[in-house]
Amino acid sequence: MKYGIIITGGPLHEQVASAKAAEAAGWDGVFTWDGIHLGDELEVHDPWVLLAGFAAATRRVRLGAILMPLARRRPWKVAREAVSLDHLSNGRLVLPVGLGTLDDNGWGRVGELTEARVRAERLDETLDILCGLWSGAPFGYQGRHYKFEPMAFRPTPIQSPRIPIWNVGGWPSEKSMRRVLRFDGVLPYALPSSGLEYGPPVVAAMRDWIGERRSLEGFDIVVEGTTAADDAAAAAEKVRPWQAAGATWWIEADWTSFAVDVVRRRIDAGPPRT
């Protein structure tokens, strides 16, 4: 199992310093998140700028933003930003994606389309376009939301066959899970309509479903949660059932605090290795 941490907040330079500290403390991945949050008091920085700072300050850890709601981003712009960061980090970028949540005013209050069906369609088309452009061959597209004639895209990603993509998988929606099968990892989620309580049994069921339809070799199952900074044994014990269920990444994510000192204390304690 690998261990990552989401740096949730703080001044930009302090977040970059935290990324460097996380690598020194033995974490395998350092992540930010993709929010715009217009009109509220939350201080937010652009994820691509933050990730560029993380890339410059580190040498080993995986980098990404958990997660990017691609429906509100232009596919060709994402393709360019991601490849630039892939090169800057020497092939350490991963792209976690999903529909995103609508509590961010960067959706409906600025005129973005919020209907779930439309966001899902745009997500699927964007994923098609990213893969096509990153191939390096002349690529055109004709979809419901995006259309363009064939064009070349250079440079291609350092990573082969492309930058890894982790998709949110809404269990037990077959449509959502079919999207997961096409790519490189899943961020598990139990749909509220299912009546299921999200936990290791749901992750195990998702792992088995995926494993019946594609190889799990090199495929990541990415879960997140919060563990104690002051009790290494308890932290490891909390992670162990998720690992047994098939998780390959534990992402430390404390969404109750955006304070630099709280995140830094958890970073310095090191990952909750089992």
Classified by CATH, the class of the largest domain is Alpha Beta
* CATH-defined topology of the largest domain: TIM Barrel
The main sheet comes to: 9 strands, parallel
| Secondary-structure element pattern, one letter each | EHEHEEHEHEEEHEHEHEH
Strands ordered across the widest β-sheet? 3-2-1-11-10-9-8-5-4
The number of distinct β-strands equals: 11
**Percentage of helical residues?**
25-40%
- The CATH superfamily of the largest domain is known as Luciferase-like domain
Number of discrete domains: 2
**Gyration radius, rounded:** 18 Å
Q: State the distance separating the first and last CA atoms.
A: 8 Å
Indicate the mean pLDDT.
Answer: 95
Structure description:
Helix 1 packs parallel to helix 8. The protein is globular, with a radius of gyration of 18 Å. The protein starts with a strand and ends in a 5-residue tail after the last helix. The chain is of the alpha/beta class and 274 residues long. Helix 6 links the parallel strand 9 and strand 10. 36% of the residues lie in helices and 19% in strands. The strands form two sheets. Strands 3-2-1-11-10-9-8-5-4 form a nine-stranded parallel sheet. Strands 6-7 form a two-stranded antiparallel ribbon. The longest helix has 19 residues. It folds into two domains: 221 residues, Luciferase-like domain (TIM Barrel, Alpha-Beta Barrel); 47 residues, no CATH class.
